[in-house]
Amino acid sequence: MTDYDAPATGVLSIEQRAALDLDVAWLSYRTEFRKRMVQQGYLKHYWRSIFEADMIFCLAAQRYIDGSPITLKELSTYFEVLATPVTVKRHIDDMVAAGTLKRVTDESDRRRQFLIPTERLADIGRQFLQARVDHALAQGFVFDPERAAQIRAQKAAGGQ
Question: Source organism's superkingdom (predicted)?
Answer without folding.
Answer: Bacteria
